[in-house]
TrEMBL record:
Keyword annotations: Metal-binding, Zinc, Zinc-finger
Region (Disordered): 1-20, 51-72
GO MF annotation terms: zinc ion binding
Pfam family, one: zf-dskA_traR
Name of the protein: Zinc finger DksA/TraR C4-type domain-containing protein
Originating species: Planobispora longispora
SUPFAM superfamilies: DnaK suppressor protein DksA, alpha-hairpin domain, Glucocorticoid receptor-like (DNA-binding domain)
Signal peptide start and end residues: none
Domain Zinc finger DksA/TraR C4-type: 103-138
Gene3D superfamilies to which the protein is assigned, alphabetical: DksA, coiled-coil domain (1.20.120.910)
Amino acid sequence: MATTVRAEKNAVVPAQNGPAAPWTAEELAEVRERLAVEIEELNAEIARAESEIASNDVTDGAGDDQADAGARTYQREREIALTLNSRDLVAQNERAIARIDAGTYGVCESCHQPIGKERLQAFPRATLCVACKQREERR
């Protein structure tokens, strides 16, 4: 029997597979704060990377040999890939915060069973329980 998940005072999110302690409102607030801080850090990283990409676009590379041009292209593509990854992490964090606010944090999106508390403490963006994640990765 699943316990209703609420993001209000004294809310509980049941732990998967057993008698682990339920989430308290304070623990959910800590997770929410951790995610918000990470969003701020990632947004700062994205801004820095975009600034660096833009400043490197201004240089014309006149007189560079093929190796220099290749190195610049590799560096630019690497910065773009890291920026895209950071944007994805921001989206995942924002989704986790929305799930906390909606009262659905800690419930597997696939099987609708509780996600283990330890899993969420280690990876607060998790949307799948361990069993469903393993099934997904095998595909």
